[in-house]
């Protein structure tokens, strides 16, 4: 049963949606005479332009030219419109992201970047009728070559299977689409096998929940675009942070603390990420001037979809309410793109305090249960900015990346996360999709957990988390290279240096080496 507090939260969310809708409608009305004529042409104009573009392309570009023809690459990567639709964005730079089709906001890989291509035109015909699908194999294999608990090598993989239905093309339902995606995971965890004893640090982004089942549902939701895509509403089963606090640039790294969101804010929280799913609804408004605002409300589910993700029961324990505002500008004649965001979430479910008991004393002293924390959450600020451009492709330049986040709750495992990165893509004219990236991250453990472990150590009892010394913080330095081997195949050599595995000084700093292999069919 939904209690009074949850009813108030639902009303607040509805009010947010109404305000966003009104704002979008007002902006759309004010800019109708100018902006729609340029940025949002009529359907007939779009169709004519698309037909002309296709005819011109067919005349000017021979069919035998391959993916590595520079003109073909520039054709779908030369623009980077901050207000672009997802269809435009997947053709203008997301092709170079590490996850490719596995990235939740970019459901289709570029048409020339698949091992099987268009399958003799079949894929193209299906997409014209509103049906698209993706199949991706992702392998992340890493070895601990120095430091840590012991040396060793592990393998893990993720198979992504998804489909998208465009009901506007199928049924004439304007702006309505459906998206479904699931994964299959298997393998071993280098963190707990060789580096330390806890999974607080996860060097393999593709390892974790979703293993040992044939198909783990990640999301299944409807998307409705309104006001020429100035307002987009999603409803269905999806992770609460799938489109909040994320950046595909983070997935130039392998470590989960960077790819694709700040794990220090989401680890062991109800602000869930891949591959968990929750009932939820979110709305995003794009009023223009490269601005956007989005908010959502998601259930805190005791089942979280079950082992395979298909438990659709609605027995919520509260709600997670994420919000985010952002600015996505372009600077100068060379269009130096940037993405700036500020956001956070509130979790209304109840959680026990790890240190303080119901009577206010430490739990180890009182021997009583922890006091109940009625609400918790986090907030974050993030940015990336291109500072130098090598060429016309969307990400062809030097990009600086940064993110900082802080948890607001006694029951969360982490206190804060700070991440900095630099990406250089397309420095070699003949390899404009290749990139080299370096990231640094520091996470701080919740001080209440540290205090509990310190007290447990003094009393000579087993420590919380199974560690042998209190946890404080850790750092990760990661260097990776993105190499496009052939259409649909990318290879990523990777090195990670972990300072203080297990967030303490029990084991020496660890040096990991390995690779990611991505195959898109």
TrEMBL record:
Q: Which Pfam families match?
A: OprB
Give the range the annotation lists for the signal sequence: none
* Annotated segments matching region Disordered: 44-65
- Which residues span the membrane? none
- Polar residues: bias regions: 44-58
Query: Which molecular function term from Gene Ontology is one that the record holds?
Result: porin activity
A single BP term in Gene Ontology: carbohydrate transport
- List cellular component terms (GO): membrane
- PANTHER family cross-referenced by the UniProt entry: PORIN B (PTHR37944)
The record's similarity note reads:
Belongs to the OprB family.
Name of the molecule in the record: Porin
């Amino acid at each position: 049963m939904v209690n009074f507090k949850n009813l108030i939260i639902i009303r607040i969310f509805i009010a947010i949606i109404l305000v966003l809708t009104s704002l979008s409608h007002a902006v759309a009305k004010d800019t109708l005479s100018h902006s729609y004529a340029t940025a949002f042409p009529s359907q007939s104009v779009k169709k004519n332009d698309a037909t002309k573009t296709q005819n011109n392309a067919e005349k000017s570009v021979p069919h035998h030219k391959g993916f590595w023809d520079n003109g073909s690459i520039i054709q779908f990567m030369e623009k980077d419109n901050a207000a672009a639709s997802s269809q435009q964005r997947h053709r203008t730079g997301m092709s170079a992201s590490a996850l490719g089709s596995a990235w939740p906001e970019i459901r289709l890989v570029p048409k020339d970047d698949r091992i099987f291509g268009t399958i003799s035109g079949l894929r193209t015909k299906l997409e014209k009728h509103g049906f698209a699908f993706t199949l991706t194999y992702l392998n992340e294999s890493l070895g601990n070559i120095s430091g840590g608990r012991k040396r060793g090598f592990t393998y893990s993989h993720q198979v992504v299977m998804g489909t998208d239905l465009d009901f506007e093309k199928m049924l004439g339902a304007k702006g309505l689409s459906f998206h479904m995606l699931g994964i299959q995971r298997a393998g071993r965890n280098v963190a707990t096998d060789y580096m330390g004893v806890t999974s607080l640090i996860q060097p393999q982004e593709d390892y974790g929940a979703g293993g040992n089942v044939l198909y783990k549902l990640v999301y299944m939701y409807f998307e409705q675009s309104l006001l020429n895509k100035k307002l987009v509403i999603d409803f269905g089963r999806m992770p609460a942070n799938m489109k909040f606090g994320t950046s595909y640039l983070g997935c130039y790294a392998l470590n989960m603390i960077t790819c694709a969101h700040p794990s220090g804010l989401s680890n062991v929280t109800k602000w869930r990420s891949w591959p968990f799913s929750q009932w939820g609804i979110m709305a995003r408004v794009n009023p223009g001037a490269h601005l956007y605002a989005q908010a959502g409300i998601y259930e805190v589910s005791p089942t979280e979809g079950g082992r395979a993700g298909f438990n659709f029961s609605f027995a919520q324990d509260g709600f997670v309410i994420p919000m985010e505002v952002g600015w996505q500008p372009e600077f100068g004649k060379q269009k130096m793109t940037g993405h700036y965001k500020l956001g956070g979430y509130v979790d209304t479910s109840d959680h026990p305090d790890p240190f303080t008991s119901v009577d206010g004393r430490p739990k180890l002293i009182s021997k009583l249960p922890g006091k109940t924390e009625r609400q918790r959450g986090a907030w974050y600020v993030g940015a990336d900015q291109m500072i130098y451009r090598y060429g016309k492709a969307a990400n062809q330049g030097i990009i600086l990346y940064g993110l900082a986040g802080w948890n607001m709750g006694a029951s969360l495992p982490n206190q804060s996360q700070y991440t900095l990165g630099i990406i250089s893509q397309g420095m070699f004219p003949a390899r404009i999709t290749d990139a080299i990236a370096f990231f640094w991250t520091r996470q701080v453990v919740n001080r209440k957990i540290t205090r509990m472990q310190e007290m447990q150590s003094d009393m000579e009892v087993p420590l919380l988390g199974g560690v042998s010394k209190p946890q404080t913080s850790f750092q990760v330095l990661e260097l990776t290279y993105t190499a496009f081997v052939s259409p649909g195949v990318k290879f990523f050599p990777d090195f990670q240096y972990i300072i203080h595995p297990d967030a303490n000084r029990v084991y020496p700093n660890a040096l990991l080496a390995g690779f990611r292999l991505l195959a898109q069919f």
